[in-house]
Structures are given as structure tokens and as C-alpha cells.
């Protein structure tokens, strides 16, 4: 008898195109992992009450790797049944949780957006460990949160080998300051945006650099964001990528994994 999936049922709310920012990133910097994989399996964990965002992920990754296979996993069987009409060659839906029941196959990418948000901070390390052992060597787990319409998003990317990064992606038009993403920090950080914590230092540094870059707004909001990214990099933060990603409203920084994940 198959074991009960690991996890609890989430609220399941989602909207079409809500996860476009993380999908765009997955089709960007991490795409080399997918291209060189001998088994291009991707798992969308906890897609919610509507499988539409899993279909969107499939369509976007097919541009990177035409033979990619995407599996949407949900612990609620009713949600799996509801998503089945969206299936097509290369896209399937199944019952499962953090244990990622893909048999002997090991996914190269796992997207778990707006899933751990509903857990306690103490449960994050265990959930990560459970998912990471199922990844293929060189694979990547993406855990994060976004707002209801996908204009503000923040996610961790972590590999089984222990490397970790944190990405912020924002709609730049009308942006008051980068720190507005605070309410969308991943669960491992949401309660750590307080003085003395790295998350607070990072958002404060971004806000200060954004304010100082105000004169660049005369050349457009993207130029202001690029100047902000350059300033925090020059201040010593381990910022990845460059203007081609920054102009999208993204910024990625190397980040130590939460305690307990690789201890």
C-alpha cells in the first residue's frame, strides 16, 4: 500500500500567470541544468486548485528543452482529478507531496512556490531535506512566495550539493522601494526581517541603494534598478548575474542555507 503523501493541503489559491517571474528565471540562469540533463524531468509541487500554472511552466520550459517532462504533484486527489484535462504528451499530474514519488527517476528541477508559506519556520529544514534527496545530481529546488498577481516574488534556489541563492523579482513600474517584498519573503526568512538579521540587512541595503539611485530614474526605471544592483554589489554583497537579468526587475544574491538543512 502506498504511503500517505508528506505534507498538508494548502489553500490552493492561484491565478493564471502568477508564477511568470520564477518561470522566467528557471528558463534563464538555471536552464543549463535542464539542457544537460540526461532525464529532463521537472516537478511542480503543490500547484494548488488549478493546474494552469503547471501548464504555463511546461510551455515555458519547452522553449529551453523541447523534450522536457513536467509532473504536477498535489496531495489533494480532487485537485489532481481537476487538473487531468490539461494533460498532454510531456505534462502529467499525480498524487504526491514532499517525498516526490517519481520512482527511480529523479527530477532536475522542483518548483515549490507558495507551499511552505503555510508551514511553520521550524518545518522548513525538514521539508527541504526531504525534497533535496530526491533531486538528480546537479538538480535545483526552488522554494518561494509571490503575491496574488505575480508582481512581487522572492525565492530560494538550493542544490543537493549545498549551494543556495536568494532571488527577488519585482514589477519595477511604480515601485516605491525594493523592501516592499518583505511580506513575500520565503518562510525561512519571513520572521527574520528584523535588525541584526541578514534578511533585514539585505532589504535595508537595497532600499538605501534604490533611494540613492533616484537620479537614474530620468533614464527609466530599469536604469535605476541596474544602478541599485551595481551599488549593492560594489558594497560587497555577492550579487550574481548582470544587467541582462537586472533589467527584468531581478536580483540574485548568494545566500547561506537555513540552519538544519545540511547540518
TrEMBL record:
Classification via SUPFAM superfamilies: S-adenosyl-L-methionine-dependent methyltransferases
One function term, GO molecular function aspect: methyltransferase activity
Keywords tagged on the record: Methyltransferase, Transferase
Single biological process term from Gene Ontology: methylation
Name of the protein described by the UniProt record: Class I SAM-dependent methyltransferase
Amino acid at each position: 500500500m502506498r504511503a500517505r503523501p508528506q505534507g498538508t493541503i494548502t489553500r490552493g489559491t492561484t491565478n493564471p500567470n502568477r508564477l511568470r517571474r520564477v518561470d522566467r528565471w528557471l528558463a534563464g540562469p538555471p536552464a543549463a541544468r535542464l539542457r544537460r540533463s540526461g532525464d529532463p524531468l521537472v516537478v511542480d509541487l503543490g500547484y494548488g486548485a488549478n493546474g494552469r500554472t503547471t501548464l504555463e511552466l511546461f510551455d515555458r520550459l519547452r522553449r529551453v528543452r523541447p523534450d522536457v517532462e513536467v509532473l504536477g504533484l498535489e496531495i489533494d486527489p480532487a485537485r489532481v482529478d481537476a487538473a487531468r484535462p490539461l494533460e498532454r504528451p510531456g505534462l502529467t499530474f499525480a498524487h504526491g507531496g514532499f517525498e516526490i514519488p517519481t520512482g527511480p527517476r529523479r527530477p532536475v528541477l522542483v518548483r515549490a512556490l507558495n507551499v511552505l508559506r503555510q508551514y511553520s519556520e521550524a518545518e522548513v529544514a525538514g521539508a527541504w531535506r526531504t525534497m533535496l534527496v530526491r533531486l538528480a545530481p546537479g538538480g535545483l529546488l526552488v522554494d518561494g512566495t509571490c503575491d496574488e498577481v505575480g508582481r512581487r516574488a522572492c525565492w530560494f534556489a538550493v542544490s543537493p550539493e549545498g549551494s543556495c541563492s536568494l532571488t527577488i523579482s519585482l514589477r519595477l513600474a511604480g515601485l516605491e522601494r525594493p523592501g516592499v517584498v518583505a511580506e513575500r519573503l520565503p518562510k525561512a526568512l519571513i520572521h527574520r526581517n528584523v535588525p541584526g538579521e541578514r534578511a533585514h540587512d539585505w532589504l535595508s541595503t537595497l532600499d538605501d541603494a534604490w533611494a540613492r539611485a533616484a537620479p537614474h530614474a530620468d533614464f527609466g526605471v530599469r536604469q535605476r534598478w541596474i544602478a541599485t544592483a551595481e551599488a549593492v554589489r560594489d558594497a560587497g554583497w555577492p550579487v550574481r548575474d548582470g544587467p541582462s537579468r537586472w533589467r527584468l526587475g531581478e536580483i540574485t544574491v548568494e545566500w547561506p542555507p537555513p540552519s538544519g538543512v545540511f547540518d
